[in-house]
Each structure stands twice: as structure tokens, then as C-alpha cells.
Model the fold of this input.
Amino acid sequence: MAKIYYVGDWAVLTGPVFAETPFHYSAKGLDIFNYGKWLKEALEATDEHQVTSVSAWDFYNKLGPGDYERILQEYQILIFSDVDAKLFQLAPSFFNRDKFGSKVLTFPDRIRLTVEAAQSGVNFMFLGGWYSFTGELGKGGWGRTRLKEVLPVQCLITEDLVESTEGFNLETTEAGKKLFSGLDFANCPPILGYNQTREIPEGEVLLRFRETDDPALIIRKTGKGKVLAYTSDPAPHWAVNFINWEGYGDFWRKCAEIVCENRGF
Done:
């Protein structure tokens, strides 16, 4: 059994929003929704894995000194989905005016800790979304950090969202056929969008998008660990069809197996 720490794919829904005068507007309701429930349930369905699902804001706000280091030691796989680089690079205390000038404020660099953990044997899965890879208007920002040292693809310099209401279809490479022999991707419904990335020599492409030939699923060996990237989202809206595919659970459990198994790429 793998212990999996899954960050991201939660949302605070403030709406619908009503503008009822020229000067004010009101949000009619507030809700918190876990869009990661489908991936969590898929990974836990066969009792092979135990998943701790954490919102991006909890990852940013609630981890105290030494907590991330403990997580990196305790979990075999860490998943980051729709988690922008700022959540690694900034700390809430930097914006606490009561602490301005009272003492030097520095904290262990979570980007450095992530890179070192990947090289030391911790496995990671980086998944797509509007705040992943380069992301919408560059908000993801992964490629401007040291994460590029372990990612199995190169992030674009500009916004990387590729979207279509008709969707894109997954197809296996030769390497992917061997690993996903039990899955029929011909029956997989269209994926409504993804983050465009560039291939690098260190990454082995397992799936592509048929219409564009862009990489969809890529694996990389990083020292003693492995890093897997899926350039689309495991949750709606890009995966609004994908989550209902009969192979959805098998796909994600196979991804977890790939990053954990003892073989090279």
C-alpha cells in the first residue's frame, strides 16, 4: 500500500453573484467543493492506496515548521494538481504586518525540499489545470522554479492552455502500450483541455493527444525517485467526461504503480 498526499483540486464557490445596484453586488451562497474526490476514490477503490486530500490553501496556510519535511518522509507519492508555484515559494507570515521588522523572516524552501526529495527517492505526480505547469496567464509558474529540474517536460514561457469544446483524444505511444495493455483508450471520452508542454530527453512519453501530438502522460527518473506528469486535469472541467470513463480508476491506479515500481525509464 502506498500512502499518497494529494494537494489541490478544491474550490471555494462564491456564487452565483448578483449585481443588484450600480454600487454593490452580493454572492448568494458560499460552498467548498472537493474536485479531487474522483481521483481520491479511484486510487482508494481497491484498498491498495491511502490518500490524504488537502486543499491548496491548507497546504499554504496550515503547515508549520518541519511539517512538509515530515510529509516528504511519511508518504510514498505526492500529487500536486492546480497548485501554483507561489504556494511553494511564499509563506503567510511574509504578509503579517505585525511581524514586519520584528525579526528576520525566512522559511525552508519547499521547492528545494521537493527537488531534493524527488532525487532521494520520493515519487511525485504533477497534474494539469489552469494553475499547473505555466498555466493561465503564467499563473502556474512551475517552469520558472527549480521544479524544472525534476519535471519530465519543459514548461512554456507563455500561457499554455489548450482547450476545445470538442475535446482531444488520448493515444498510447509504444512505451505506453506495454504499461497500459489492459486499457482501451479508443473508448476513452474526449479530454476538454490540457497544458501544452515541450518534450525533453529525460522524459518518456506514455500518452499523447492524437489531434496535436502533444505529450499527455510522461515519466522521468530523478535519481532514486520518479516524477510523473499528466498534462490535463483529473477533475472537471477538463475531465468532466474523463471521470465517467470505465477505465478512469484503472488508469490512475496504474499511474501510481508506474511511479512506485522499481524499473528504469
In short: The chain has a mean pLDDT of 93. Helices lie at 37-44, 56-61, 67-74, 86-89, 110-120, 174-179, 248-260. The CA atoms of residues 115 and 149 lie 7 Å apart.
